[in-house]
TrEMBL record:
Belongs to the IMPACT family. This is YigZ family protein. InterPro entries: EFG_III/V, Impact, Impact_N, Impact_N_sf, Ribosomal_Su5_D2-typ_SF, UPF0029_Impact_C. One of its GO terms (biological process) is regulation of translational initiation. Pfam families: DUF1949 (PF09186), Impact_N (PF01205).
């Protein structure tokens, strides 16, 4: 079995005040750099008037697949930014919480509204660390196995059998009915090759799988 890893069970947030400054920690699952960046942008849009929106994330550097498993051996992209806070006072402490708690495939953003009192580098580091820790606690940490994604495009005549196959396999998928039918599938890495073979067999090789 491909290595399991620790990640957040879902989205969550936590908020508190320190000497008049409000801190809001947000966390979200993210399986790719693109998903992590999209979450960061979403929080920035939610709080355009914040003094700082400090991001940190740990996600796979590339997509998981049967040849590049998403478990312990995968290369992780670790990113953080101080977003205008004093250097090393915010982004690094936020990222350190993710590292110390050994969670990955996760993005965090800490929003700060300045309250008029400077907290100093030590005070900031404690506050940003606390915001991520409390958001992680609110989200809950779970063990997950690496997943990969692929798209199977079939003609309408084959769509019923492919949909039934995916439903019986118990995998996550979304279907788009246009000129053809496209199934966006999320499957455990260790089951991906077998599922693709079963789709090809069910459609006599007519399925276009990417």
């Amino acid at each position: 079995m491909t290595d399991a890893y620790r990640t957040v069970a879902g989205r969550a947030d936590a908020r508190f005040e320190v000497n008049g400054s409000e801190f809001i920690g947000y966390v979200s699952p993210a399986e790719t750099v693109e998903e992590a960046e999209a979450f960061v942008a979403e929080i920035e849009e939610r709080h355009p008037d914040a003094t700082h929106n400090v991001p940190a994330y740990r996600v796979p550097a590339g997509s998981a697949s049967s040849s590049v498993p998403g478990g312990g051996s995968v290369m992780l992209r670790e990113y953080q930014s101080d977003d205008g806070e004093p250097s090393g006072s915010s982004g690094k402490p936020a990222l350190n919480v993710l590292v110390q708690q050994d969670v990955r495939n996760v993005a965090a953003v800490v929003t700060r509204y300045y309250g008029g009192t400077n907290l100093g580098v030590g005070g900031l580091a404690r506050a940003y660390s606390r915001a991520v820790k409390e958001a992680l606690d609110a989200a809950g940490v779970v063990e997950e196995i690496p997943h990969e994604r692929f798209t199977a495009t079939v003609e309408y005549d084959d769509s019923g059998s492919v949909r039934g196959l995916l439903e019986s396999a118990g995998v996550e998928f979304e279907a788009a009915y246009e000129a053809d039918v496209s199934f966006e599938v999320r499957v455990p890495v260790e089951d991906g090759a077998d599922l693709r073979d079963r789709i090809r067999s069910a459609t006599s090789g007519r399925a276009d799988i990417e």
